[in-house]
Design brief:
Layout: E1 7-11, H1 15-27, E2 31-35, H2 38-48, E3 52-56, H3 64-73, E4 82-86, H4 91-99, E5 104-107, H5 112-146, H6 149-158, E6 164-176, H7 179-184, H8 188-208, E7 212-217, E8 220-225, H9 234-253, E9 262-276, E10 282-286, H10 288-299, E11 304-308, H11 309-315, E12 322-329, E13 333-340
Parallel strand pairs: 1-2, 1-3, 3-4, 4-5, 9-11
Antiparallel strand pairs: 6-8, 6-9, 7-8, 9-10, 11-13, 12-13
Helix pairs in contact: 2-3, 5-6, 8-9, 9-11
């Protein structure tokens, strides 16, 4: 693969210096650009985004110090490393250059070998910094993928995340009807592809409504609302998410030989959340609220949403519920449950 040549912008008002540096850099495989003034240097830097700038200090009009000040003030050019070229060799001149944002300083008259060495070093450092930044962004994306937003931010900022009690949140629990039977008709790749497509859609729906997935276990999907940011309407957000998920599957099943049908359980209350494990991060939620949401799911029919009376009341007047009844719920005794029409 042919590597793109690194662009070096040379800024000097003396034609001879431009010519010598251009020839020297070209011979070593760089792509030199030229500017004879600070104003022109800023213009080229914005358009060409060079990998490094060699900047003379003493120039008519805008000098090197003002030029670098403007470069560093512009978001488009602030990260470009600048090496000063100058006959000003007093220590205070060099200190001023470094304080203004320069990464290095080459004294005139310059030696070609020194210029090349410093240019190569700082371009390599910039590339290394870019790689580190890319890996950091990947790590952050991964954290946000496997952990709730607030937990990911806490880990990123402090390195730890303490278990926490969350009061008054809504919990969503679902699984697919006849999942084992459907799974037998698919290859491993096809099955994972189906689950990935559906869970991605579920995640999008949850995110759009201010809710978030906690985890999946096979065909089970667990989500919660109001842990990454306290909201008073968590139940209505989760009810809306549940409806949209059923609507999504109804639409997806149209014209498909393989029909995916879901059962959904909803409940609200207090939960405990925290990271389990030290080598592999797994964020999980615990408590009666989670268990009861799971019980509601087991009571739901296919493509239906079963919830507790408590959840119905929390969802507010924007939703109507039906089929209210009192049943014995394992681990919770008698409870009033109802259905959210889809």
């Amino acid at each position: 693969m042919i590597r793109e040549k690194k662009r070096v912008l040379i800024v000097d008002d003396i034609e001879e210096n431009l010519a010598v540096l251009t020839e020297t850099l070209s011979a070593e495989g760089f792509a030199p650009l030229q500017a004879k003034s600070g104003e022109r240097a800023i213009e080229i830097a914005r358009k060409a985004n060079p990998d490094l700038i060699l900047l003379d200090i003493k120039m008519p009009g805008m000098d090197g110090y003002e030029t670098i000040e403007r470069l560093k003030a512009d978001e488009a050019t602030r990260d470009i490393p600048v090496i000063f070229l100058s006959a000003l060799n007093q220590i205070e001149d060099k200190v001023k250059g470094f304080r203004s944002g320069a990464v290095d300083y080459v004294s005139k008259p310059f030696q070609k070998e020194e210029v090349l060495a410093r240019v190569s070093t700082h371009i390599s450092l910039r590339e290394a910094k870019r790689c580190i930044e890319i890996e950091r962004e990947k790590s952050e994306r991964l954290l946000h993928t496997i952990l709730p937003k607030r937990v990911a931010e806490e880990l990123k900022n402090t390195g730890v995340s303490e278990p926490e009690l969350f009061s008054d949140v809504s919990v969503f629990f679902s699984d697919f009807v006849n999942f084992t039977q459907n799974a037998r008709s698919l290859s491993a790749k096809e099955l994972i592809g189906e689950l990935n497509a559906m869970y991605t859609a579920f995640d999008d729906i949850m995110e759009r409504n201010g809710c978030e997935r906690i985890k999946t276990i096979g065909d089970a999907y667990l989500a919660v609302c109001s842990i990454s940011g306290k909201v008073s309407d968590h139940a209505s957000r989760m009810a809306r998410s549940a409806r949209e998920i059923v609507d999504f599957l109804i639409e997806r099943n149209k014209g498909q030989a393989l029909q995916w049908k879901i059962r959904i359980g909803l409940h609200c209350g207090d939960i405990v959340g925290g990271i389990v494990g030290t080598k592999k991060y797994l964020y999980d939620i615990f408590g009666d609220t989670v268990n009861i949401a799971s019980r509601m799911e087991s009571l739901a029919g296919e493509m239906s949403i079963c919830c507790t009376k408590k959840f119905c009341e929390s969802a507010g007047p924007g939703f109507s519920f039906c089929d209210e009844r009192v049943i014995a719920v394992k681990g919770a005794g008698e409870m009033t449950v109802c259905c959210l029409p889809v």
